Amino acid sequence: MLETNLERIKHNLETLSSFNSTPGKGYTRLSFSSEHRKALDFLSKACESMGFEVMIDPVGNFRAKLKGSDPGAPPIMCGSHIDTVLYGGKLDGAAGVVAALEALTVIKEQNVPIRHSLEFIAFVEEEGASFGGGLIGSKALVGKYTVEDLKNLTNDEGLSFYEAAKNFGLNPDELEDYVLRKGDVKALLELHIEQGNVLYTKSIPLGIVEAIVGIKQLAVTLTGKANHAGTTPMNLRRDALVAASNIISFVEHCAKHEAFDTTVATVGKIWCFPNVTNVIPGKVTFTIDIRDIKTEGIQRVEQLIKEEVKRISDERGLQYSVNLVGESDPVKLSEKVVSVIQRVAEKLNVNFLRMNSGAGHDSALLTEVTDVGMIFVPSIEGISHAPEEDTEYEDLKTGCDVLLNALVDLAQ
Questions:
Q1: pTM of this prediction?
Q2: Which CATH number describes the domain made up of 214-328?
Q3: What percent of the chain has pLDDT over 90?
């Protein structure tokens, strides 16, 4: 069995994490930022030095190909996302990017014969930290987003994804030429940190993902009346923030008591206007993130929340809107690929757990066009999307070794 190089993994991960706009406060590498550019330049140089074919597609997905012996055979993709959340950790996405780079590097260095080409991909805007919704690079790649959709995805400053890509030197108008169809790719493998504490608490070094949760993200806006905090009697107020607080509490209640034990819901972002100490809030917008491995759980919570938004708004004399920000369906991964990963883990004598993913991933979108498998490595204390996010390097290397050998198996 082949083995990856731990020191090179460390070096590449530390280099990638140095492209960070918030040093000392966590890791931030937003799509189309200067840090994103530096990361792409680093990957390009590393891949070109190994003789891989390098390109960046019209929406910003980085791709590098190691050619197989059969030019007519569909390639196998591997990788993860290159962007981060604000003030996040250095491993989310980056671990899978470095793992894929390392796997292709070892295969090239050792002249391992492969029939199918291997294509390393670093997805753009998985997190949605800039343009909302998330999974934009993978959605565009499988035809879920059109050019017009990209023009309607905007950041907090009103700049669209389309405009940002153009400013970055890309041509999103060519997107259609790069959309993947069934048969274009044999399989996709992604290594990722678990972002939960199942593997860590069980002291299991490897997770083999069987299914990925569905996600629905909503934006709720409540509009009341801004007014003087001292001269407006309590019974005459149309306070949007108080109404929002009631709904937010109801969101927690729904996820806990009205759906399944696999259902979770989170309010993670709030805008309050005018956001002044002595003014009654006249308008509030907040996001709701609903997740479940069961579609019914997501639908149930969404329905109850919409009913409660209407009830509270009517009761308090507020106007309201509930808008869809983004969604992805729960998906089962390919048993064919899962079995390959399991077989490799058994050959390497690696203890593993077959499990579900509570986080959304680009891999979920690729299930529409190809067979997909995911490998999890443990997150220390289950922490992710925070500066403290970490994984033991030995566990990361174990995951990289499994990824490497699974790719070789599939590429024959």
A1: 0.85
A2: 3.30.70.360
A3: 97
